[in-house]
Write a structure and sequence with these properties.
Elements: H1 2-9, E1 14-29, E2 35-49, H2 67-71, H3 79-107, E3 110-112, E4 117-120, H4 125-129, E5 136-140, E6 143-144, H5 148-157, E7 163-169, E8 172-178, E9 181-186, E10 192-197, E11 200-202, E12 207-209, H6 213-240, H7 251-263, H8 266-284, H9 292-305, H10 311-339, H11 342-350
Antiparallel strand pairs: 1-2, 3-12, 4-11, 5-6, 5-7, 7-8, 9-10
Helix pairs in contact: 1-3, 3-6, 3-8, 3-9, 6-8, 7-8
Length: 351
């Protein structure tokens, strides 16, 4: 919708707006000639603009197009307009997530646990670092800590890695270097996993803080920015080998976690929906041809060269991007099937 609305603002025509891919299940054509439809495969969606060869927005060869037809075609617009149309998609994902968080914080409230230590477990990293009851954690690796949830997120992003923890004790600021321990954990649905722990517990339980509209949007934007940073950090860890690639998931895992989030209550489900929207926006910004980030990269090259890349080079780039995306999808689906125990069941059948 972000792509479509910005394109409309620039007078670019849209041939189709599709939710899902593949064969059309249901649809209608509006008075501007745009076909609004729902596709068979519910794995995203697309807008096909006038002058696009396909759903990936590759430019069609239109040597016989009239001047009036070219005026509404996406490919003949200035590169800055095309870039803004493409950028509008991921930005809308982030804006949608911000609105979700803001609505949640205004109606239900924001869950906050003060970052004050109540208990330090003997023999844990926190105890060895000298933390005691009453210490207030203020920063971890330079990032501000305003709630115990920030501490938990920092631990999840730094499994087994040393972090600098700043804390306040009796009005004096101190810093310790601490390595979280990896401990066995069973989630609320019985799945075993390993999580990073310092060995501390907060002094108070969760507090639900209702937010006024402006404050809600501010804290919603902060939450989105924090989650984007967490995703970047996590992907970086996978690329550098600090995290196992098996932690990545695809559609099956999303469906599984959606059900789990729903079982934990509406606030958890709503926050998970926002998280999925943020993930979509981030993934679409990756500089992979066929994704929005790939288009933006090609437009940047075009702006520097003052002319687009040769059609053959663009074709090669799109085919390479398609192959990369399909390979990633196969890998993530393999991970997902392993996560739900499919391979263990199969081995049991033949064992």
């Amino acid at each position: 919708m972000g792509h479509y609305l910005v394109a409309r603002m620039f007078g670019i025509g849209a041939e189709a707006f599709s939710i899902g891919f593949g064969r059309e299940l249901v649809g209608w054509t509006d008075r501007r000639g745009t076909r609004w439809k729902v596709g068979l495969l519910p794995l995203g969606g697309y807008v096909k603009f006038a002058g696009d060869a396909d759903a990936a927005s590759r430019a069609a060869d239109v040597p016989e197009a009239t001047k009036a037809e070219r005026a509404v075609m996406f490919q003949f617009r200035p590169v800055w307009q095309r870039a803004l149309v493409i950028l509008a998609g991921p930005l809308t994902n982030f804006a949608f997530a911000t609105a979700i968080f803001a609505a949640l914080f205004m109606t239900y409230g924001q869950t906050v646990t003060p970052a004050v230590i109540a208990t330090v477990v003997t023999g844990t990293p926190a105890a060895r670092a000298g933390l005691i009851s009453g210490d207030v954690i203020t920063r971890i690796d330079g990032s501000r800590v305003t709630a115990f949830e920030d501490v938990m997120q920092a631990m999840a992003l730094n499994p087994g890695k040393a972090v600098d923890l700043d804390f306040r004790r009796a009005n004096a600021m101190r810093t310790v270097r601490i390595v979280p321990a990896m401990v066995d954990h069973v989630d609320p649905f019985g799945a075993p996993t390993k999580i990073a722990r310092l060995g501390i517990a907060p002094a108070r339980g969760q507090v639900i803080v209702p937010r006024a509209p402006l404050a809600a949007f501010y804290y919603g934007a902060v939450e989105v920015w924090s989650l984007i940073g967490a995703i970047v950090h996590g992907v970086g860890d996978v690329v550098t080998g600090h995290r196992a690639a098996s932690e990545m998931g695809g559609p099956i895992k999303i469906a599984q976690i959606s059900g789990q989030a729903a079982a934990l209550g509406i606030p958890n489900l709503v926050q998970f929906i926002a998280f999925v929207s943020i993930n979509l926006g981030f993934i679409n910004l990756l500089p992979v041809p066929m994704l929005d980030g790939g288009h933006l990269f090609l437009y940047a090259v075009e702006a520097v060269r003052r002319r687009p890349l040769a059609p053959r080079v663009q074709e090669w780039a799109f085919m390479s991007g398609f192959a990369a995306l399909m390979s990633l999808m196969v890998f993530l689906t393999w991970n997902d099937l392993g996560g739900v125990g499919a391979w263990q069941r199969l081995s049991g059948l033949f064992g």
